[in-house]
What we know:
alpha/beta
Amino acid sequence: xxxxxGTMAARIRVxxxxxxxxxxxxxxxxxxxxxxxxAVRAGFVEGCxxxxxxxTVAYERSGTGExxxxxxxxxxxxxxxxxxxxLLVTDREVIADLPGFGQSPDLRTTWPRDLHTVxxxxxxxxxxxxxxxxxxxxxxxxxxxxxxxxxxxxxRSVTALAPAGFWDERERRYVFAVLAAARQIARLPExxxxxxxxxxxxxxxxxxxxxxxxxxxVPEAVAASLxxxxxxxGFDATLRAGRASDxxxxxxxxxPVTIAWGTRDRLLSVRQAxxxxxxxxxxxxxxxxxxxxxxxxxxPDLVAHVIxxxxxxxxxxxxxxxxxxxGSGAPLPNPVQPSANRxxxxxxxxxxxxxxxxxxxxxxxxPIRQLRRSDGGAL
Length: 379
C-alpha cells in the first residue's frame, strides 16, 4: 500500500551493481499529473492533535501490502512521486500533500509554524487513516519531517531522500537564494512564464538545480513545475521556519533509517550527508548515481528499488536489531564506496549553479534582497 501524502564510519554506499533496476531512459519527461494505474482512493483527511486546530491534508491510497507514506518537498506536490508509485502499487500502499502545498490547505493561523506541531499533526492524520506506525519515505522537507516522525516513534522505518535541514549557515543561505529565485520566476505572468520555460537559460536556472538530467524536461513540464511552486500557499512561511537552528537534533536509536542522496544534487550538497550520518550513526547511507536533488524523476526505478528494500520486513527487523546494538546497520544489497572525487566536486557544482542563477534578470532577485535584510546578513 502506498500513501503519498554517526560519523562517516556509518555505512556510506552507492548503488552500482543493479541487476534488478533498469537505467533511466532517454524518454522525455512530462509533468507528473498522470494517474496511477490501479484502484486509487483520494480525498482529504483531518488530523486533530491535542490542543491544536485540525490539520487537513489531501492524499491518495493505492496498492496492497504494508502502508508506506510518501511525503514530498517544499514547493512540490504529491504527484512528484507518480513515476515511483507506479512501481510500488503492487507491493505497498499512500501519498500526501504537505499542508500548504498541492491540494492541501495551509495550516491555520493559530498553528505554530514549527516541525514539532507538524509532526503532531501527521500523527493525528495517521490515526484518522488507520495507519499504525507506517513506513515513511520523505524527500527534502518531507525527509526532514519523516526523520522527526521517527524520533517520536510514530513510524516503523524511515527512508529519507536528501533530507533538508542539515546545512550550515552558508549552505542554508545558498538554498534559500535558489528557492526564492525560483519562487519569483514562478510568480511572473503566465505568458512570460510560458516563454521563459522555453528558453535554455530558464531551464538551466530552475530545472538544472534540481535534476541530474535536466535535458529530459520539456518546456511544458518546466512550466507545470513552476505553476505548482506558484500555487504553494505555505511556501513563504515554511521557508521562514527553515531558519531555525534546531531543525534536527539527537539520534534515532530505535527505528531503521535509510538515507539516500543523489551524486548530482546541486541544491543540498553531499557534505550534508556526512552530518546526517554523524547524528544518526546507525543509518544506512546510499548514493544514487547520476541523480540530482529530485531522484524520483531522475531514476524512478532505482528509487522504487531502494524503497522496497528499505521497507522489506526482513530488512526492517535486521536493521532494528542492529540499531539496538548501535552498529552501523545491516547493508542493503550491492554497495560500493562512492568516489572521493565526486564528493570533492560538490562545491564546484554549487558555484556553477550560483553562476547560472546570477544570470536571471534582476527583477527575479527582489525577494532575495528582502530576505537578506530580514535574515541579518549577505546571502
